[in-house]
Design brief:
The structure holds 3 protein chains of 3 kinds. Chain A is of the alpha/beta class. Chain A is about 20% helix and about 25% strand. A 9-stranded mixed sheet of chain A has the order 1-15-13-5-7-11-12-4-14. In chain A, strands 2-3 form a two-stranded antiparallel sheet. The model of chain A has no long low-confidence stretch (mean pLDDT about 95). Chain B has 2 domains: about 130 residues, Peroxisomal Thiolase, Chain A, domain 1 (3-Layer(aba) Sandwich), CATH 3.40.47; about 230 residues, 3-Layer(aba) Sandwich (Peroxisomal Thiolase, Chain A, domain 1), CATH 3.40.47.10. Chain B contains 14 helices and 11 strands. The mean pLDDT of chain B is about 95. Classes of the chains: A alpha/beta, B alpha/beta, C alpha/beta. Chains B and C meet through helix 4, helix 5, helix 6 and strand 5 of B and strand 4, strand 5 and strand 6 of C. Bound molecules: zinc ion. The site of zinc ion has 8 residues of chain C, from loops.
Amino acid sequence: MSGDILGAFAGALASGAVRVVDLTHTLSPDFPVIVMPPELGQSAPFRMERISRYDGGGPAWYWNNLSFGEHTGTHFDAPIHWYTGRDLPLNSVDTLPPADMIAPACVIDCSRQASEDADFLLTVADIVKWEEQHGSIPARSWVLLRTDWSKKSAAAYANLHSDGAHTPGPDAEVMRFLVEERGIIGFGTETIGTDAGQAGHFTPPYPAHHYLHGAGRYGLQCLTNLDRLPPTGAMIVAAPLKIQNGSGSPLRVLALVQERSTR
Amino acid sequence: MVLSRARQSYDGVVLAVPVTVPYQRYSIETAHWWMGKALRALADGAGISHRDFDGFSVASFTMGPDVAVALTQHFGLSPRHIDHVPMGGAAGIVSLRRAARAVQAGDADIVACVAADTNQVDTFRKTLANFSRFAQDASYPYGAGGPNASFALIARHYMDRYGATREDFGKLCVAQRDNALKNPNALMKKPLTLEQYMSARPIAEPFHLFDCVMPCAGAEGFLVMREETAVSLGLPFVRLLSAIERHNAFAEDPVQVRGGWVVDRDELYGMAGSTPGDMDFVQTYDDYAVISMMQFEDLGFCAKGEGPDFVRQHTFTVDGSFPHNTSGGQLSAGQAGAAGGHLGLTEAMRQLLGTAEGTQVKDAKLGLVSGFGMINYDRGLASAAAILARAS
Amino acid sequence: MTGPFLKPKRKNPLARTTQPLLPPQARSRKAHGLTLAAATGRFMLQCCGECGRYTYPAREACPNCLSSDLTFRDAPTGGSLLSETRIEVTSDPYFREHMPWRTGLVQLDCGPIVIVHLHGGCGGPGSQLKLSLQLDRAGQAVFFAKPVSETPHMEDDPQWREMTADPKHRRVLITDGRSPLALPMAQALKKAGAARIFVGVADRWKPLDQQALLAAIEGVEFVDLDLTSERSVQELAMDIGAKVEILVNTADHVRPAHLFDAGAANAAREAMDHTVMGLMRLAQAFGPVMRSRGADGAAGAVAWVNVLSVHGLSNVPQFGVHSAAHAACLSLSQWLRTELRPGGVRVINTFTGPLDTEWFQTVPPPKVAPKAVADAVLDGLKRGLEDIYVGDVAKDIEARLFDNPKAVEREAGQ
Ligand SMILES: [Zn+2]
């Protein structure tokens, strides 16, 4: 690769050769948040209270106060979020290496299986099958699980029943495999968590959190527009807020996609 | 306990210069304006300066925030006897009694007794709303009907118990209207028939429109002095023969059927050396006809419960069998607030002075004036009466 | 005799909404002894500690013996009518809109003579009557006399309706459909003739246990309402604010936490957000429109009900956060009461002991069934109460607080 890479990149952006896809949901009070058993601490939903809107509180300006939990809306999980990552260096969002904020993505399309079974689990076999088509997952890349779950209405999206949430996710073995065998930088989903709705019953419980953060890797959840990404080749820009000792944060997740026609 | 001795007489106490400042339905002026007019008329009538009044007695509902002493500065008076008598319909006689004792004792020579109230557009409502603590707590919040509602309860009970009818009340109202038509100062100037009375719109059952007085602005006044003072000033006068007052009598009666007159009436007539039958006219406090009826009974013109029958036997007109409220009374002359309690006195003075003109009762020598007032909660608390006589 | 209160016609959108007015409000300080009684539906009069006689109107000394030992004591409610009137003309703007108005003079069985508002079903003088102390639209105590035995449509008497907050033909908002109180409350309101029952539900994406049972009640309509979201509350008020005549705030958030727990501040904040701040958001969104509709026809806005924990009156450590949150709610509701009074809208606080629900599972009985709370609220609306104590625990704490608040504090948690 020669010379002016960023100049060429700017040109590609300007020409439309590189398209920017927004993988982020709008932060709004109505967006479902993770539900924990009620006697446990709860993540605060997104709330916005007006400071002023060209009125007595501020005659010429409009602004708001916000409140929300770190794990609200489309958000980023840092290693410190899970006990397995608690002693790692650089494990919180403020110490996150900036280079890790930009990385390539492999998109595994399981939308058909998820539409048939809300409890669909991604397995190593699915990865093997995907790699047969698209090649081996490169180290330090994101693996994004496409389920089209983001297209569901709020109730179907949360899909809560008396025995808890029923949403797709990875099984324990595939998470161990992706982290240890493939060395991925992180795992992303369209659902409320990186883990499946019933993952509390897995061994270990919540395996995505367990393995990812235990190895200093990251999670992205509540993603959308994964159907607009190619299986390989997209670059993900995911820069969480620099919150001191923060375990995660809502963020704007962007994907850079090179148009096939211009290749 | 030593029992009270006989009341001392009112010998030598006279009243002079009856003053009525013609009433107005509504006034933009204050009570002070009306008092000033009355004081001026008293001074003019006596042919002296108002500074010569060394006694001043005032009654008013609307003089606030002033008290009596403030009014001395307002009007340039310098009295040595001063009185504020906030007793509504009893205020006239109570003022008179106190003034009489003051001039008898030499505490004052000439006491100007004045009652005045204005009636601005919202005066009546404000007066009602702030009338008394008990009224505020326990009667006004119940429909805010004011005295109409309170006296309606008394009237309804009186009708149930003694067989009075609306026609009986109507007869008194119609007779007073007849009298009022002879009084150029009366606010009511149209004749009233019993049919009109009966068919008028209801106000608070059993009261209809013509059972109720019309609040207005106005002032009444008179002078109290010793006989020799009147003679030295060359003023015609009438004599005070006797006077009584009694407050909160018969508190145990569940509903008011009588006033305090009953307690003291023997003394009233005894001091005057007269009997009810000697009276040439009677001025009752007529906020409602039922109260006049009660006064006929309690002042001995008939027995308790015979009021309705008594009304059916007399005409109550100036030239009739029992001249009563000859000026038209408050019902037809108007109720100028606290001045309503002085109205009967000034009219009685004119009758006895022979200056009543159109309403003059022939050969009037002796008259009874009665006062009543202050419906603090469920009943009128203050009652008073006086007997006045022609000078000679 | 009283005719039935029929469903009011739809309002003419071209006509100005009648502005609320209040009956005369001025009272002496002593007279508020009656307010205290009326607020809880009791009938009390001043009674002399020395000679034992009841007295009225409220005063500072016994007219019989001049003792100043005059305390308000429960009194027999019977009396006989001495006289009556029907007022057709008044100088007061509030009563002017309610003419004619029937009042009477009553001799109480215990002695005093009282002027009363007279129910239309009462017979004439000589009739025996049953008296109560009511709070009128100004929130001030007044005597109301009714016939001793039930007459047809007794609760529909227009003067009685001014003293109460009857749900008949009124539209009600139950703020938290997830509360165990929501279902029995909706059922009771329906039975009482409520025209519509809006049931607020937060996080509609979460399952609602009682959805089917609630939906089966005719007139129930689910609405989005999340008391922790200003926007949600505001948006609902924009939709239905002008249609809510009775608001029943069933919101609660019981989470056990010890004061020294690391997470206690979060628990407290969450509880405050759901309860105190929720009430604040509701007040801001629904308060002004309800206040303005206090005289909007015969079934205008009339009541705001808060279901509060009796522990808000005195903290119990087992539910320390809950107690603190409800103490704050109580304070806020007093403020709200003052603000709604100009509209003649009464704020009813329903104090309940521990409910028989999951969050009070470990509390020994007696506990309060949700239906008992609903029944008490309905009773309070129909009788026009201001403070209701539901269940043995709440009644016990009320009585003990009246007796000695320090003892309640010291014994808490023992
Ligand atoms: Zn006593």
